[in-house]
Input
Amino acid sequence: MPFASVLRAVQKTVPWAARSGTAWSTPPVAEQDQAVSNWCWLATTASVDAHYGGTVSQCQLAHLLLSQTGCCLSPSSAACNQTGDVEKALKTAGRHRSTSSLAGSPPHLAALQTALGSGEPPVGQVTFTGGGNHDVLLAACGVDPTGTAVVQVGDPAPLFNPTYLIWSQAHRYRGGVSWTHVCWTRR
Amino acid sequence: MPLRVEPPDDAQDLQDSVISAVGAQFGNTPTVSAPYPVETANLETVAAGDILGGLLDIPRWQCLIGSEEPSAAVDVMRDQDRYVVVSVNYGELAPRLNEVIRTAEQLLPQGDYELRSLEVPGLNFVAVHLVGEGSDLFFPVLPRGAGPNNIPARSYTAAELAASLQEAAEQVLRDEQ
Output
């Protein structure tokens, strides 16, 4: 479907110096879309588990963590569609190594590179400037054609999955975030 | 043409920043849209039954980009005297937003509306915001998967949209206490 006419789209020529793609240091880890509106914590945990070869689903985690039984049939019910703690979910799935507090700043790129290089994707927790918490998978590190560090964010919200985030601008993700924690994961 | 965009005066610089940073992902001559403003709503205000009363003061623009059709949305903000690309969204946002804008163009044959985008980050909610003279209209940009509160795809006034999102915002704030 072509661009809407109001957007007045134009063709532009890419400068020669910028004619290459982002080079990821490891293949990006796939993030699942969250099944319902409040399951970013469960989608991210299920994605980590799947990366390590597990098969736990979002709704199975909901059963374990919310003491429910009907979340696979009715995930959008009030009892099932709830927010929660991704650290607790990772522990339940057996995929939690440790958690670091971040006090607002994003995790250091070198630490992300080390974890991803070991095949252990970290999970970031953010609080939006406008309110509300969110959990995302930090799925890959790379360098864009201008030599800028980029992190592929596996954002379980389907409209935003995936997003390439210029890491020097990580505090401005989706209008502004405070990075609160990073959970390091394990096989 | 009832819809219009109000890009910043130096929109050319903004588009050039986008092309230099990410254009190559879409071929040597990608297509890029005019930049439109993105408004960021406050979750507490939404929970109180309002939308426009609590917009955050965050100067933010977005361009859609692709080879022939829009396949990514590029977020751009100001860093002192220059534009910087913050992120490139390869999710459903760009194609769905484009679809919704086209629908709005067809549904509004008369009038004068400025195109903006509205985001409620805490609800993962995005809408096309059409600013008219004395009236605002909103068209939700709904993903194929999970969206907030199963909002139907139709046009909303500010009051209708606020009422539709209020319960979801209240629940998120309650759960996170």
User: Anything to note?
Assistant: Residues 47 and 167 of chain B are 7 Å apart (CA to CA).
